């Protein structure tokens, strides 16, 4: 049970602080760098905090890759995905709940020139940090999410096997870089739970388009697992004729 709670809490942190950085800066000039860092550093901190308990996945695509690599039992994989989805949904609900206080802040009041706005109006206008793409660019979004999720999970699958690198920090910074690059195109999910949770509350096109993130991100994670297994194979070194002779003499 401890590992499922850890996955819930870690996913909550990632989604709450990541999407919160988008939502609570809606009245000011948003920066792709700050959004990327919010996601990346939140993930790094969550891995440092809970990685020793559950492995620090916080992402169904990562858990799928670990299951394919036989680093996670399939039964545990199902429990992880449920915990991650719940953590993401609760995080989006918390961000939604915080909009009421945000609308009362001086930043929003100044931006609205004293006019009032309901939470529903704000979410309809500014969103809830959901990932989305323009109409007609679904396959472009699918391709970007597939390739970048593949690269994201591939790095995770490799660095988590190395003892001489700060894996949580590398994974967090790598996520931040990927989000900054693709934010204007797909919003940069690379995580089915992160994509689905805010879309449930916003609905509309965000919910209609969410299949792209669910399929592309899980497929990218699966492909990354096979690629990591291939790259991790030990190369067999052929014996030289001299070594063969010495072996026969022995």
Automatic annotation (TrEMBL):
Keywords: Cell membrane, Membrane, Transmembrane, Transmembrane helix, Transport. One of its GO terms (molecular function) is water channel activity. One of its GO terms (cellular component) is plasma membrane. It is a multi-pass membrane protein. Belongs to the MIP/aquaporin (TC 1.A.8) family. It is found in: Cell membrane. Pfam families: MIP (PF00230). Its main location: membrane. It comes from Leuconostoc suionicum. The chain crosses the membrane at residues 7-27, 33-51, 72-96, 139-159, 171-190, 210-231. InterPro entries: Aquaporin-like, Aquaporin_transptr, MIP, MIP_CS. This is Aquaporin Z 2. The keyword Plastid does not apply. PANTHER family: AQUAPORIN TRANSPORTER (PTHR19139), MIP17260P (PTHR19139:SF199). The keyword NADP does not apply. SUPFAM superfamilies: Aquaporin-like.
């Amino acid at each position: 049970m401890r590992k499922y709670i850890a996955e819930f809490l870690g996913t909550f942190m990632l989604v709450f602080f990541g999407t919160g950085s988008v939502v609570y800066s809606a009245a000011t000039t948003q920066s792709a760098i700050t959004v990327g860092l919010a996601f990346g550093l939140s993930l790094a901190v969550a891995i440092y905090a809970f990685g020793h308990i559950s492995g620090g996945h916080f992402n169904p695509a990562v858990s799928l890759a670990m299951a394919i690599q036989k680093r996670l039992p399939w039964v545990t994989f199902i429990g992880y995905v449920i915990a991650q989805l719940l953590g993401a949904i609760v995080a989006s609900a918390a961000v939604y709940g915080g909009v009421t206080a945000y609308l009362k802040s001086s930043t929003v009041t100044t931006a609205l020139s004293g006019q009032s706005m309901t939470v529903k109006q704000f979410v309809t206008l500014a969103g809830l940090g959901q990932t989305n793409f323009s109409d007609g660019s679904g396959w472009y979004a699918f391709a970007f999410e597939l390739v970048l999720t593949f690269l994201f999970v591939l790095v995770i699958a490799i660095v988590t096997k190395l003892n001489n690198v700060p894996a949580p920090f590398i994974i967090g910074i790598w996520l931040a870089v990927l989000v900054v690059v693709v934010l204007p195109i797909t919003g940069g999910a690379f995580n089915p739970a992160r994509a689905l949770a805010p879309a449930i509350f916003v609905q509309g096109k965000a919910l209609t388009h969410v299949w792209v993130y669910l399929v592309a991100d899980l497929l990218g994670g699966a492909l990354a697992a096979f690629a990591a297994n291939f790259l991790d194979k030990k190369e067999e070194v052929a014996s030289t004729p001299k070594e063969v002779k010495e072996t026969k003499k022995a």
